[in-house]
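INFO worker-7 received task bundle
INFO bundle size: 2
INFO processing item 0
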Amino acid sequence: MANIYYSGTSCFDGSPIEIISVEGLLTGKTYQDFDLNCLSLTYSASTSGDTNTIFLYGPFDNCSECNAPLSAGTETKICTIDCSGDTITIIPPHPTWTNEYGKAVVLLDAVVLGGINGLNS
């Protein structure tokens, strides 16, 4: 697989970036690297240089998608009756952890027990 020169912008501050990575990345898309930086690629060309960036996640359509936490499961919603007798929908807090690459993962089909500190509240 050949290495390709890519240029684009950082989603963090909009600064220009230049990298060399594996072929197959799509320009016009956004990727997240090992340092959890989201980079939007706008140009590519062949190069003989060595790879200096490997991407963990992507392609995303934009920076907002790239920066969003990963999620698993179907969103849990709870319907309940409030004090005035009206039915309301509550979206409870979900368990969140960090995966081995530092990316937040939200388990949408589970509910955190207790308060902010879990059962230690």
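INFO item 0 finished
INFO processing item 1
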Amino acid sequence: MTENYPDEFFEEAERKEALKTHQEAFAYLDNKEENKFQKILPQKTKDAYNLIAEYCMKEYNETYGEMPEDEYMRFLVGDYFGTGNGRTLCVLCSQSMPYGDDYDKTAPHPQNMEQEAEEIDLYEPVNSQEYRAVREFHQKFGSWMLMGVRFVSREDFFEKYGHLLPSSLVELKDKSCYLNYYSKLHFNFS
């Protein structure tokens, strides 16, 4: 014995099937858009870091003159005053060592070339130390603090912000060593 189903039953089933097909199509488009942004976003981020680093170095050069060639550290400060009585101070002292995409992956390996290995420096980073310092500052403190970031000289860093730093760090200020320090201080009197 076969049951007769009302037409509404078949119409509902068709609607559900059509909705499922549309949802799959939208999911496909969403993934395609995400992939497009995943390809564009890293380059836009690099461009932004470069712009910030260039601006900060221009400001540094106007304030202190050229960066000494023997200065291997970068000192960054982000000082933000809110609308109230609050203040956030972020400091970063880093050598900004290169890693990952800081090296050219498309450079030919010396073993595959006729040139001598000494003529090709595969370990020369493609990004500037200032770029890497800005990127590190962003990773530590976030986008908001990039608004007021600036490079300061070693002398100004320890003179103006030395009271906020640990005494062991201040003792190392004139020593040649690997050093990476960051700190965030927020206070509010309201």
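INFO item 1 finished
INFO post-check item 1: Residues 7-188 form one domain.
INFO post-check item 1: The chain has a mean pLDDT of 80.
INFO worker-7 idle
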